[in-house]
Amino acid sequence: MPSTASIDAVYKLNKYQKAKVREYWIIDPDNKILLRYTLEKETYSLSQYEFDKPVPVAILPDCAIDLGAAYADQEMSRR
Question: Count of H helices and E strands in the chain?
Fold first, then answer.
């Protein structure tokens, strides 16, 4: 059975693109990386971000998500 990461990166991505989902994020908490796919016309453009600063939400211009803070909170709750 394929891993969740490969399902997210291939199967879901294709389904979301066909459904015209405007923005799709894949978060890799182990490597502290976010992949943001933004629909432009008929295809996705890809942007990659690290958790060191807030990530802008492409479809909400005045919004950004601070994954570093969220990740730090999650790490603290595991202890």
Answer: 3, 5
